[in-house]
Amino acid sequence: MSGKSELIISKIRNGVVIDHIPAGRALLVLRLLGISGREGFRVALVMNVESRKLGTKDIVKIEGRELTKDELNLIALVAPTATVNMVRDYEVTSKFKVTMPNVVEGLLKCKNPKCITNQQREPVKSRFRLVSREPLKLVCDYCGTIHELSDIERSLGLV
Amino acid sequence: MVGSLVWNRDVISVLDFSKEDFEVLFSEALSMERYAKSKLDILGDKVLALAFFEPSTRTRLSFETAMLRLGGRVIGFSGAEATSMAKGENLADTIRMLDAYANAIVIRHSLEGAAKFAAEVAESPVINAGDGSQNHPTQAMLDLYTIWREFKVIDGLSIGILGDLRYARVVNSLVQALSYYRVRLHLISPELLRPRQELVEFMNSRGIRYDWTNDPYNVISDLDVLYVVRIQKERFPDPMEYERIKGAYKVNLKLIEGGKPNLIILHPLPRIDEIDFAVDNTPQARYFKQAGFGVPLRMALLRLVLGGGS
To answer: In what residue span(s) does the Aspartate carbamoyltransferase regulatory subunit N-terminal domain sit (chain A) (predicted)?
Structure first.
């Protein structure tokens, strides 16, 4: 993390630090994790700070919320370069690079209005399969519609 | 006849099957041809549910005929308005009920992915008889069977697909099924009805040799098979767009004169105006024969899915 951002945000006691998010994607990361800010726990967000690896990057710190590795790997959809630090008692207990999940269930909305998963009254969750990491491509498991990064951003309500 | 082979599985997409599966199906269908107008009493203890939420003539009646010829029984409905869906019942509940009554369910629905979802809900095998503009696997099996019956092989043929490549589910399933064979594909359509990104990416990923043209006269002399589909009026998001494009292509005597002597013309039917009636009497026309194969092909499919003595 750059010295400048450390001036802005203090260390967290228990939680997770998501670093090396491509600049401008921090809000998408929070949306993917289902964090709106209304849940009550402390969230710090730094955008467009200097990074040796990426030029500029975003950082997100979340205090007081347990996140599983599976939940965190969803971040890879919009931030494939992200690294995650799990923190307990101010110490980093584990650190990993996110990896793209092969299946994303129940999180994204299919853009095809005629897809069965868009029917309100059917007990069906959306399900997407990863077909390409670069460029990002997911395919709806039910209707076969291809979704690219811009579709995913739209699905998360950030475009 | 193929011994006691039983698939006992859903039929949602042709991609769930292998080339070997098709060979088994074709050989079974060939042996069923002689029973297509008589009876082979092997599914006497079975009930087939036909859940047609969308209109159908050939697919529904050929499934029904096939089941009756195999000695089985049929329940079902045609059009959601005659069912509790009209009262607000959802698809999942309707399928659960049919699952309790029948040994297999044939479903046609306007929503894409409906058959796959039904298969997840039902324990009995589910056969997709068309979902939205996505899949129509049993039609593609029938199309391939007709080509195989006509030419004895599929590998090496040059196949033109003319018409609505964007919304016709039969095109999607046919191209997927043909990906198991070494064929040359010529896609022919008005610009507005070019195949969707999904189909183009599929063809590229499978290394299918294909080209596209908007004029059938450019490729007619190269074709062994000309497969024609109507413009799918009911799937156009904008009716004005349909009005602009209707009648954009027509197969007539002049076109087929430029074809090879052994060219065959197929069509999944219904036909609107894309094949001139004068073509019906030519030796090239095979679409009614193709529709006729629907019964033995679906007899074979039902037998493989439902079992039944050898």
So the answer is: 8-98
B139 marked ligand binding residue: yes
* ipTM for the assembly: 0.90
Nearest to B92 among A123, A142, A145 (CB): A123
Q: Is residue A118 part of a domain?
A: yes
Show which of residues 57-116 on chain A sit within 8 Å of chain B, judged by CB atoms.
112, 114-116
Among candidates A114, A123, A145 on the partner chain, residue whose Cβ is nearest the Cβ of B111: A114
Q: Are residues A57 and A110 in the same domain?
A: no
The alpha-helical segments, DSSP class H, found in B77-196 are: 91-101, 114-121, 137-151, 169-178
Q: Show the domains of chain B with their CATH numbers.
A: 14-135+294-306 (3.40.50.1370), 137-291 (3.40.50.1370)
d(CA B88, CA A156): 30
The pTM score is: 0.90
pLDDT tens string B14-33? 999 999 999 999 999 999 99
Mean pLDDT value across residues B107-126: 97
Residue A20 belongs to domain spanning: 15-97
Residues sharing a CB contact under 8 Å with residue A51, sequence separation 6 or more, in sequence order? A2, A20, A57
Strands A146-148 and A137-140, bridge-based pairing: antiparallel
Interface residue of B84, B108, B110, B112 to substitute, partner A, most A CBs within 10 Å: B112
